[in-house]
Write a structure and sequence with these properties.
Blueprint lengths: L1 E4 L4 H12 L5 E4 L9 H4 L7 E3 L5 E3 L1 H11 L11 H27 L8 H22 L12 H16 L5 H4 L1 H10 L3 H4 L6
Parallel strand pairs: 1-2
Antiparallel strand pairs: 1-3, 3-4
Helix pairs in contact: 1-3, 1-6, 4-5, 4-6, 6-8
């Protein structure tokens, strides 16, 4: 399999973490839709990363689709529970974490525009989503060691990815002090090679 993406995308990192947790070999093809000669639109009509090319060249896109596929490829280290209430809760965690990433990416890109073209209201709107998302995460996590209790799941992968992206792009957001339980979870996750070896970088 080939994974097409960048070192900066939180959604690509999420897929890389799952591939590492599942111990699946793959080729990492560096590409970004922001590059003038990007090949991403050739494999994803939406022009977004990540894209996972299967052995028969079938492209899978959207990180949520990709990670669920990967989790079903091999039975080891299952990250999604069987279809039931717990699975729905894991996917809700993932949707929340992905939403924080969406808002963070949007705010970061808006801030990169020329000063006269930036929308301060738009950035504040995205920052508000991030703040509310973190509050909800912290409340839901409580004192549990992992999002779903005693074991790591896709919920933790998604949450860890979102928190890592905030550390990368928004170091001024001191979520660690405001939400020490999230900081404890992130510290625990960063001890895993799958997280430590996929830290985003420019």
């Amino acid at each position: 399999m080939k994974l097409i993406g960048s070192h900066t995308s939180p959604f690509v990192r999420k897929v890389r973490i799952v591939l590492a947790e599942k111990k699946i070999d793959y080729e990492f093809v560096i590409d970004s839709p922001w590059l003038g000669d990007s090949k991403v639109p050739d494999v994803n009509p939406l022009g977004k990363i990540p894209v996972l090319l299967l052995d028969d060249e079938t492209p899978l896109f959207d990180s949520r689709v990709i990670v669920e596929y990967i989790d079903n490829v091999t039975p080891n280290n299952k990250l999604f529970p069987a279809p039931n209430r717990e699975r729905t809760e894991v996917k809700r965690w993932e949707a929340l974490a992905d939403g924080i990433c969406d808002a963070a990416v949007s705010a970061f890109l808006e801030a990169k525009r020329p000063a006269g073209l930036q929308s301060g209201d738009w950035i504040l709107r995205q920052r508000g989503k991030i703040g509310r998302g973190l509050e909800f995460m912290a409340e839901e996590l409580g004192e549990k060691p992992y999002c779903q209790g005693t074991h790591i799941s896709m919920a933790d992968v998604a949450v860890g990815t979102a928190l890592g992206y905030l550390c990368f792009r928004f170091p001024g957001i001191d979520w660690q002090t405001g939400h020490p339980n999230l900081a404890r979870l992130y510290g625990k996750l960063m001890q895993r090679p799958s997280f430590a070896e996929t830290v985003p970088n420019d």
